[in-house]
Amino acid sequence: MTKSQNQTVLDMQPSGIRRFFDIANEIEGVISLGVGEPDFPTPWPIREEAIRSIKKGKTYYTANAGLIELRRAISTYLSNKYDIHYDAQTEVIVTVGGSEAIDLACRGLINPGDEVLVMDPSYVSYVPSIELAGGIPVPIQLPSEHDFILQPEGIEAKITDKTKAIILNYPNNPTGAAASREELEKIADVIKKHDLYVLTDEIYSEIWYAKDKYTSIASFEGMKERTIYINGFAKAFSMTGWRIGYLCGPEVLVEQMLKVHQFTIMAAPTVSQYAAIVALEECDNEVEAMRKDYLQRRNFLLGRFREMGIPCFVPRGAFYTFPDIREFNMTSEEFALALLDAEKLAVVPGTAFGEGGEGFLRISYAYSIRELTIAMNKIEDFITKLRNQK
Ligand code: PMP
């Protein structure tokens, strides 16, 4: 074959997380704190509803935008929980996970050559989704001294006349950082001042530990018209394998994105849609129980890092810690590979999420306290040896 393939795809790097875990998987007996996937099984009421729907023969396509009952449940849930208001008929699309929603938002907004601001470090799919849509990702290095919260000056420094949008993700993967209401207000002011769109990925909003009430940037005055709100069921309801999420926005945007969804996906899986209604309407207690467990694990990790003298800011949400390993004068990747080699423990180098992650590791606590204890002992042994070599 002599004809070339798509150049954007050829140039794309595979996910840094995957690359690292391909190495880890080759080593026998490896313990991993690498995966960003809840370790809890999906709560029973959700599973039972899925089985019931199949027994009733609900095995056909739904409306392209998703079951209206589910869209109503999403609309009510967002209104009650976060004071954000979307019309179930015209402003919600049920997607194949948050992943499809990110892709849809990029394809629906970006024209070739548009610049899109992305936090660095950030979740691995934003940059490729922007590039596939013909856009140019512009990283904004997140300041570690501000616990990885975007500063208005940092955003403004990267804005040009080509800037179309910014992608926000709080609570954040990989850092666990989450902006306060005041910080979000300042970010929103910059977005409004420069007339940008914002794609806000709030998939971790239920995994929230801070004392202040969770605030969505979509809830601020003047933001709805410029906001694509993305959420999903994978994290809060431990439904990664069900492949279901959603995108909300003003009708003028959503009706365009629906065309892309219609032609590429048709509709999200029907069984998952029925299950998702029960998740939203009946599973507050299960979500709260998982949140409490994550909080306990987070505190356990922070306590162990403190004892080891490893700086780590207190994550306000999600299930990741982002310890600072700059003391050891190794790159994140060197550190992670050496840890893997010496202790058979896999954690993700911060640079898998962009250059802004250099000097840090992402350690997921979607693992049991027993596993976390073994892993922390290994880290302690490893850094003790490193310090003794100095
Ligand atoms: N956004 C973020 C920030 C994530 O961490 C993930 C999953 N790791 C996703 C989106 C995609 O989730 P889903 O399984 O719903 O596609």
Structural class: alpha/beta
Which cofactors or ions or other ligands sit in this model? 4'-deoxy-4'-aminopyridoxal-5'-phosphate
Helix content: 40-55%
In CATH, the topology of the largest domain is named: Aspartate Aminotransferase, domain 2
- Major sheet strand order: 2-8-7-6-5-3-4
Low-confidence stretches: none
Instruction: Please provide the count of β strands.
Output: 12
Q: What is the helix/strand order?
A: HHEHHEHEHEHEHEEEHHHEHEEEH
Mean residue pLDDT: 96
Biggest β-sheet: count, sense, barrel?
A: 7 strands, mixed
Domains, number: 2
Terminal-residue CA separation: 55 Å
Question: Judging by the overall fold, what is the CATH architecture of the largest domain?
Answer: 3-Layer(aba) Sandwich
What is the approximate shape?
A: globular
Beta percentage is 5-15%
From the alpha-carbon coordinates, what is the Rg to the nearest angstrom?
Answer: 21 Å
Determine and state the CATH class of the largest domain: Alpha Beta
So what's the oligomer here? single chain
Instruction: Give the count of helical stretches.
Output: 13
CATH superfamily of the largest domain: Type I PLP-dependent aspartate aminotransferase-like (Major domain)
